[in-house]
Amino acid sequence: MKIAVASGKGGTGKTSIAISLALAACSDSLWLLDCDVEAPNLHFFLPTASPQIESVGISMPKVEKTLCNGCDLCTQHCEYKAIATFNKKAVVFPDLCHACGLCSYICPEKAITEYNHPIGTLRQSTIGHIRLVQGCLDIGSSLSVPIIKKVKEKALASSALVIVDCPPGTSCTMIHSVKDTEAVVLVSDSTPFGLHDLKLALSTLKSFYSGYISVIINRYDQKHDQTEAYCQEENLPVLLKIPDDQDIARAYARGVPMVQVKASYHDDFKILLDKLIRKVKS
Amino acid sequence: MTVKQLLLASGKGGTGKTSICASFVSLATNVLIADADVDASDLPLLLNPDYRNVEKFFSGKEALIDPLLCTNCGICATHCRFNAIFSSNKSTVHQVDPVACDGCGLCALICPEKAIRLDERECGLWYLSQTRFGAMVHAKLHPGGENSGKLVHLVRQKAILEAQKNNSSLIIIDGPPGVACPVIASITGCDAVVVVAEPSLSSQHDADRMIKLARHFRIPAFLIINKWDIDEDFSESMIRSISNNGVHLLGKIPYDPAFTQAMLQQKTLIEYAPESQAARAISSIWDHLKLFI
Q1: CA separation (Å) from B13 to A38, A60, A187, B39, B221?
Q2: How close A114 gets to chain B, by Cα (Å)?
Q3: Which H or E run contains A31?
Q4: pTM attached to this predicted model
Q5: ipTM summary value
Q6: Cα dihedral sign for A24, A3, B183, A203?
Q7: Ranges in chain A, pLDDT < 50
């Protein structure tokens, strides 16, 4: 079973909640996937001495100048304007390329070949019952989605529990992280920003997602909260409300997950995980 | 007059970019506001804009298979690098997964039946609005929209045009989280980046990545520590470590629940609680920042 932890707004506590879910499932072995490849942070909560590191690349076209006759077909067909013809020779702009393979396919002179162009890394480690896979985008590289796909591939065939820590937002990176999971937990808070971005995330999910959607309200502030009322209107189950506890914030800052702050939080997450598994199975 | 551009960024989301950005906007004069967080645009919640102009944003394409022409040969699916074309026993023809489709057009090119065409994709809306502090350009990516980087680029181009029209001397840009395409589209051509961090391992790590990105594009980066008093020792060690990388500390802002109170009133902190310690910290940071831009 695959559970994604997502949110529209950043900083609502996705990573904290993903790690707490993983730790609460104390006996079974599981996968924890860090798909926030632009700002991967799960390793702070699960320090490991030596993760196994592999490079992630995309197939970047390369023009063999002696074969290129400047026919311009590649330039005319590239939807990303990532290849252009100057002085009768095609030139690739790697920053714009999406590695679709069209130019190498279409070139009548077979002048375009492909090479592996690194855009980031995968870090893998096993800590107790948790198999952690983190994607990390290289600085200056713009394509997050190919790394997210690689992270998810690692646990694709697994029948174990998979918990996916998603990037914030509602664009392609969030969608590819959430895709093919059976449940999404949307993490919001009691602020107007949190509520606004929860609505955006929900409308994004409604456009393509068929799994079970639920909400966690983090830093719950009963006096000002409007998020819970909104969830009721939308028939969105709120599975957990986490209080605005300075002890959690201080522990988080130093890499201590909230389930280790108080035993009651550990129990809350255990119940939450059981609920999620039951809901998905029913 | 040349227009200066100032970006607020953080790497990690939720460190307080938008609240601080709105406060800067209320302290600045002759400013133009741009919200580059196009998939979770929150600045309008504080600035309450009067929407003057709305336009659609088209970018990229999407493959469409004509079921009358498709012979289900599957050549498109074998060549698609994005695994966006699939067959199922529910249909006698191949189908496109719009979420996975990148709009490259390879399938349309190789289809022997010419059964695939590419359609323009409407990815969002962009707005030119008026706020009590000046004009604002902002946008909203459609649910799951592609090409947020291009929408950010559009917002910034429109902001520059509008700033020139209004004789604004400064554009303040509220940036998206992360370091990939929408952030790269936000940072290029800026005069300075203010990185908003909070005292935590995660935020420090992500702020470091943001500072590296700024350096990659040769843009001067400045640091603000928000909620610094949540962990004073941690804040001090962060400041030491980041300053060692040549990044100038603009100041520290204390944790203040008034940020949320202000948000509920649709006000900036400077308007809601001008005498609060946090508001005074932001004002002095702003005075400090003005010297550099």
Answers
A1: 11, 31, 13, 13, 18
A2: 13
A3: strand A30-34
A4: 0.94
A5: 0.92
A6: negative
A7: none
